[in-house]
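Morning, I've got a small favour to ask if you have a moment. The fold is given in discrete form, as structure tokens running alongside the sequence. I'd be grateful if you could look everything over and explain what you see. No rush at all, and the record is pasted right below.
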Amino acid sequence: MKIEIWSDVMCPFCYIGKRHLEQAIETLPFKNEVEIEWKSYQLNPEYHNTDNEDLYAYLSRSKGMSVAQAKQMTGSVVEMAKNVGLSFDFDRNIPGNSFDAHRFLHFAKTKGLQNEAEEALFHAHFIEGKDTAKLDVLVAVGEKVGLDKDELTAVLQSDEFAEHVRYDVYESQQIGIRGV
């Protein structure tokens, strides 16, 4: 069975959903026959964190709420994450543009490491508080999953896989996906 998942590495619900899916797959008698393909989706493609804005300031500004309300809202997400064994740290979370992270994932796919790379990006972003929009962070994450540092750096310093990301987003729009 093949499962296609449109996801954004900046989306905490995508990471939580990934855990729920993994738990469900483990119960299947054919769990070793399940193939997951990650597809690119950007929740906020126009956003670029040029001011090193933290998550609470971003949510306050973009959602029209106070910082206190943003902290309360993320607190409930932290509880949801705990229920699937994840320890989110929104105090260190840095929002950013996920386009290069998606190019990273497409590159990892060519090496048979897409699922490992997806997990590593989610972990870096939500648990370690890393800025996964930055080249050095993406390269470090790539090395952890077994990608060649020089090859990955060359990919990320080019436009390679940009069309793959754009096509995934286009495909999501064609089938009616409006959020992840």
Remarks:
- The first helix runs from residue 12 to 26.
